[in-house]
Amino acid sequence: MEFGIFDEVNAIAGLSPTAVYDAHLRQVELAERCGYHSYWFAEHHFSDHRMAPSPNLMIAAAASRTERILLGNMVNVLPFHHPLRLAEECAMLDHLTHGRLQVGVGRGVQPGEFKSYSIDMAKSREMFLESVAMMKRIWTEPAVSESGPHWACQDATLMPPVLQRPHPPLWFTGISDESAIWAGENGLPLASAFLSPAEFETMGKLYRDHYRPSLHWPDPCFAVMRHVYVADSLDAARSDVGEVYDRLFSQWLNVALTSQAHVPESYRAYPERHARLGAMNLAELMREGLVLFGGPDEVAAGIHDLQERGVDFLILWASPKGVAPEHSDACLTKFARDVMPRFGRETPRVAAR
User: Fold this and answer.
1) What is the predicted pLDDT for the residue at 310?
2) What is the DSSP secondary structure assignment for residue 10, as one 8-state letter?
3) 8 Å CB contact between 342 and 334
């Protein structure tokens, strides 16, 4: 079992945007000292609390502060970017990270973002597939010329070329059966979120049944992104962030209700699931295994359950909106010291800040 961290770069009460970015970058440094495998930045636009329109800029900044931890975007929303421009940027990041870059790709799930960019959400899948194909060509072939339904390029040769060959490792995110099958057939790691443990088990089996080995990934890698908070005990965890976790997904309820009538059929599962999550409090989320919360024993038991269900990789969602930096830092440190060693990970030395 490997462990990474997912960061939406949420605003922090009382801090300026400059100070918020500094705080999140300090968390990357902490993650490296703690021995986490990787750190992942989200891409979100026009949010009232998420400050991450460019995960790639966060990766560039984090690269200058770290040496070992892998750095990735989870994900680049491909319909919002010209694939030639994104391929160039990732090639540059591959060098700035000294070969630590991981490239997460997805088609996007936020109706408001598509609306603001004036992009038809119903076309996101075809745009995604066209973009992935073009990016792979640009990374691996000289003088690429391409003319597709959504993007074109002429005699495009990458400078600099990618450092990792044939290109940086790709990751894919999704929660549908279709996503699991596509990731498996294309030999990519699959990262999923928001599902119950039983649903993860079903999705993981579907993914593995369709898996075709690839150069970077000879074996399947099924990752789960999960909200995690660990403290000395369940009572201590409740005291620290219980109020935040009681309304963890509450902002999704209004989004789900307002977007239900405006999303394409292929996205209908998202507002339905978000509405259900948005109505749940901490006790309900814990009962259904939708968060990992409590003392080391409770959290480790939840991870063991996921592992038994075929999960290879846990990506901790440790700093959601409302969790103070001192609490998220304490959680990541305690998880590394008291939970990771139970899964074959060496206990790290965490230097004082």
Assistant:
1) 98
2) B
3) no
Q: pLDDT for 154-186, tens place per residue?
A: 999 999 999 999 999 999 999 999 999 999 999
- Alpha carbon distance 229, 226 (integer Å): 10
Contacts (Cβ under 8 Å, ≥6 apart) of 191: 74, 104, 171, 172, 173, 223, 224, 225, 313, 315
Q: Residue 208 and residue 82: Cα distance in Å, rounded?
A: 31
219-252 pLDDT, tens digit per residue, is: 999 999 999 999 999 999 999 999 999 999 987 6
Q: Is domain 2-249+292-343 given the CATH code 3.20.20.30 in the classification? A: yes
pLDDT of residue 272: 79
Report which of residues 347 and 132 the model is more confident about. 132
Question: What is the Cα 312 distance to its own chain's centre?
Answer: 15
Give bridge partners of residue 317 from the DSSP assignment: 6, 227
* CATH 3.20.20.30 location in the chain: 2-249+292-343
Sequence-separated (6 or more) residues with CB below 8 Å from residue 246? 281, 282
Nearest-10 crossing angle of helices 124-140, 83-96: 50
Is the separation of the CB atoms in 160 and 91 below 8 Å? yes
Which class for 39: exposed (0-12), middle (13-18), buried (19 or more C-beta within 10 A)?
buried
Q: According to DSSP H, which parts of the chain are helical?
A: 17-34, 55-63, 83-96, 111-116, 124-140, 177-185, 197-209, 234-246, 250-259, 269-278, 282-287, 296-308, 325-338
Q: Can you tell me the distance from the alpha carbon of 19 to that of 52, in angstroms, rounded to the nearest whole number?
A: 14
Contacts of 118 (CB under 8 A, 6+ apart): none
What does DSSP assign to residue 97? Answer: T
Report the candidate in 281, 285, 75, 297 with the shortest Cα–Cα distance to residue 194. 285
Contacts of 143 (CB under 8 A, 6+ apart): 155, 156, 157
CB within 8 Å of 18: residues ≥ 6 apart: none
* 309-329 pLDDT, tens digit each: 999 999 999 899 999 999 999
* Residue 311: partners with Cβ closer than 8 Å, 6 or more residues away: 1, 200, 204, 222, 223, 224
The more confidently predicted of residues 255 and 305 is 305
Contact criterion met (CB below 8 Å) for 271 and 263: yes
